[in-house]
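Q: Joint fold for the lines below.
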Amino acid sequence: MENLGIDGKLLVAQIINFAVFYFVFKRFLAKPFSRFIDEEKEKEKRVEKALLQAKKQEEEILRKQEEFRTKIRKETEEILSHAKTSAGEAKQEILAQAAQEAEAIREKTKKALAQERHLLENEIRKKVIALSFFLVSRALGDVLTDETRKKTTQAILKNLPKKLTTHEN
Amino acid sequence: MKIKPRLKEELKQFIRQKQKEEREIAVITSSYPLQDQEITTLRQNIPELKTKKITNKIDREILAGAVIQVGSRVLDLSLKNRIALLQELAYETDR
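A: Joint structure:
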């Protein structure tokens, strides 16, 4: 043993030292230490549990948030669709009314134009008649000889009606 | 304007006299001087002329026939009037 460099006494002393240390440790340190480790483990478990719960809650919140978003989106789409339909109907109504009014205006204008045309035609007709008779009178004034005038007068006097009516001048 | 009553009365009398004279005269307007026969025909056909003094006026504008005026009353037998009546008829017919 001495050749190997191992001191017997030192070894025994070390062993005794270790044993004392082990005894002291076991008696005085092991339990609190082990309790401490257990407590720490317990704490860790609690923290893990709390974390898990928090995670679950977070997921729940996210899920509800998503649900709410979906609901909002759906309602918004419904409202938009309804608004589009209403706007479309209103547009159709306005267009129909405008078409009706345009038609009424067109008819009114047509009637007014026809009336105007009729009045104008009458006016022209009257003027043509007046001009024709004026030309006839003037022509007769130039063309009628005294002899013709006499004959015409005699014919008028010959064919006088039975009842003659005078008028106030 | 105030008119003296005497002047007013004389004016009234004058106007009455004039109207009376006018009522006694019949004016026949023709396009040429009428012959006695024609005037007689007129007297026969228009009783009003029988007692009236007839004056013949010449107006070539009436073309032919005669216009008889007694006072304010007129009987238009002229060709011009007939043409005018025809013109009125043309207006009515053409509408």
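Q: Anything notable?
A: Chain A is about 90% helix and 0% strand. Residues 8-143 of chain A form the longest helix (136 residues).
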